[in-house]
Each structure stands twice: as structure tokens, then as C-alpha cells.
Amino acid sequence: MNEKELPDHLREDNLSEETKTLISSLPSTKDFLGKLYNYQGCWYYPNTLLGVRNFQKGFKPQETDIVIASFPKSGTTWLKALTVALLERLKNNSSNVPHPLQSDNPHGLVPFLETNLYLNSSTPDLTKFSSPRLFSTHMPLHTLQVPFKDSPCKIVYVCRDVKDVLVSQWFFRCAYLQKELDKSLLESSFESLCSGVVYFGPFWENVLSYWKGSLEDPEHVLFMRYEEMKSDPAAQVKRLAKFLGCPFTEEEEGGSVDKILELCSLRSLSSMEINKTGKTSNNVHYSNFFRKGEVGDSKNHLTPEMDNKIDMIVEEKYKGSGLKY
Fold it and tell me: Domain of 102: which CATH number?
């Protein structure tokens, strides 16, 4: 696949002179898609790095902003859908009005700051966003926080077992590169992940930035685990609602929670017309975002050696942090 066929944020055809000067001084490497540059401890493709810089320079926070954060393929789509549904239930819309999730994909409703809104400009038009504004990111917390400073906005981070993240990324990449499942791509992705030199990586630095943030400032940073969302979704949705300042009342406790979980289920979202036929602004098919959503699927694809190596790395990297995975 040549560069022109890649999604915009993975390319390097959009760089300002300032960004070209910056990247010439940054640590760099190459992977199967192109060059990666390390900025503030995180690896980015060049156009994404421009988006990060645009965001840091131009974003003006509002007090009610909500940011959904994650490492790619960690349950982002589901968390976005749940957040949209939680806030939507507070509006007294008539039943004739289609639910936002029926007319747009979660990634359209909660766009990425660095790979979408700020990809081409440090002053995008954000007037279409009503309060509370919903945004998303894959940046580590220290990079995201640059324009937020002391803003009371809420940040929700979802973390997932890195083995399942790796396998999910492999399926996703093969889908948007329009390739058959390629074991060599899984192996090279595994090596990159283990070395830490991977898009938005190192994985453990991304996770730990939000884990530590949630311990230091639990009122503004919520750390969620994909596995807990799967094993006890009702409890986790209530926890999310409480954190966002829209807890369930006693009257709505059972029914509303169940309705939201059903609406946001993989089965429900993947069967909606918009998610069967639509594409992101970066030209990725929405259908690629819905696969299995299972916990532990990695065991069907990774060798025992890969499994053990990842376990050892994760144990070493998380040691002393209090984070158990």
C-alpha cells in the first residue's frame, strides 16, 4: 500500500515547515507503514505529530469537557458509545428523534483530537459541539494535559490486556490495509510492541500515565478496565455515570442501565446501518471497528513464547505502580 492509500493521520504529506524542523531533531525509526518520531516520550507518525502540536497550541478547554482516552484497540469504541448514551438519556428528546448512535458511529460523535479535529489546523471550528463537549485521544496524559492545565474537565481512560490489544490491532490493520490475515505482520507488531517503539507507545507508558493520574486526581481522571466492563457492565456503567456527574436515579436504576447496555452492545452497534456502510474522516470503514470484543482472544493467535515474553515485560514495567494486570 503506498502512502496515498493510507489514512491521513498515518502519512507525512501534511507537514508545516515548523514540524519538519522539529522532527529533524527527534529520535526516529521506521515500521511497516512509515516513519515514527518520538515526541514527549511517545511515538507518532508525522501527520499525527502535527495534530498533537496543533492541539497543544490551539485547544481552548471548557470546564465541562469530557475526554475519552485509550491506547488504540483497547475498547475505545464501546466506551465512546456508553458515554454518548449516558449523556443522551439526560435530554428529553421525543421518541421520533433517532438516537445519535443510530445516525453516527461513536468515532464520529466523539472525534479524536490529534488524528481528526486538529490534524489540519490549530484552530478548527468546534462550534458544533454543545456542552458537555466530548473528545477522544490516544495521547499519554502528560501530552494531553498541556492545554488543559488546571481545567476541571473529566478524563476517562480505558485499559485492556495488552495481548488482546495486540491481536485486535493485527485484525484491524489487516482490514484497513485490505490484506489477508498475515502472521508476519502479527510477529513484527509483537516485536514493536515489546520494544516500546509503536504508534502511541510505549504501551505501558501510555497506561501508567493515566493510572498514576487517576491515583493523584481521582475526581478528574477515571481509570477503567475493559475486562471489568465485560464481566460486570452494569456496575461499570454506573461507576462511569457517577464520575461524569450524571448518576442513575433510583427510579431509572435497572431499566435505564439495561437499555444503555443493550443499545451499546457489539451486536446492536454492528447491526446499525451507519456502522455497516459508513467511513471515518480518515477513510477507514466503520465496520472495521466491530469484531469480537472478547476477553482472552489472544490465546487463539499468540504462541506460548509470545505470551510469556509479554507477561514478563508487563510485570517488570508495572512493578511498584500498584497496577495489576
Answer: 3.40.50.300
